[in-house]
Amino acid sequence: MKSALYAIAIGMLSTACSTTGSKSNLSTDFMGGDIRVVYNKSGEFESLISTAIVKVTSELPSAREEAVTVATVKARRQISEFLKTEVDSERFVTTVTKSIQESNAVSGSNISAANAKIATEVKETIKQKSDSLLKGTVIESEKYDAKNNSIIVTVKTGAREVGIASTIKKLMSF
User: Fold this and answer.
1) HEC readout, the chain
2) How many Cα atoms are found within 13 Å in the side-chain-facing hemisphere of 153?
3) 85-143 pLDDT, tens digit each
4) Confidence label for 10 from pLDDT (cuts 50, 70 and 90)
5) Which residue, 3, 26, 55, 133, is the most exposed by fewest CB within 10 angstroms?
6) pTM of this prediction?
């Protein structure tokens, strides 16, 4: 029974980790590109993506796995710090508004007001869902960069990932 639950959980996680490109999605980078907020033209928040890079510090067999663990924790910490500091700042709305303007996603006579409204909606959605976003993080990718001897981990959270995480939690509690 438990192995069936694990199989379902792994299947759901692998589905959650796949990305599908949508031309209607917009994104804004924060913290030097380590954090990316993805949303659509109507201001609906899609996902929050965090990338962390950690050097592999030894030649031991477990060194890469330890670097993956450290990079994963670092990426999740970046999301936490972003939710606590950046989302509440006026800079968040300004940066998202600027990204929308640069993408020419909204057209009409009062473009600046529409862009600011979308940015504010994204901000409010993230603030309302911040607790569940932290619980719903999944590792989207992990790569070894041989040139720099480092591990690159990308962690993602969003409405879809939060829903999958809660489903897995319910399945595992049997």
Assistant:
1) CHHHHHHHHHHHHHHHHCCCCCCCEEEEEEHHHCEEEEEECCCCEEEEEEEEEEECCCCCCCHHHHHHHHHHHHHHHHHHHHHHHHCCCHHHHHHHHHHHHHHCCCCCCCHHHHHHHHHHHHHHHHHHCHHHHHHCCEEEEEEEECCCCEEEEEEEEEHHHHHHHHHHHHHHCC
2) 24
3) 999 899 999 999 998 888 876 666 678 888 889 999 999 999 988 888 888 889 999 99
4) very low
5) 3
6) 0.77
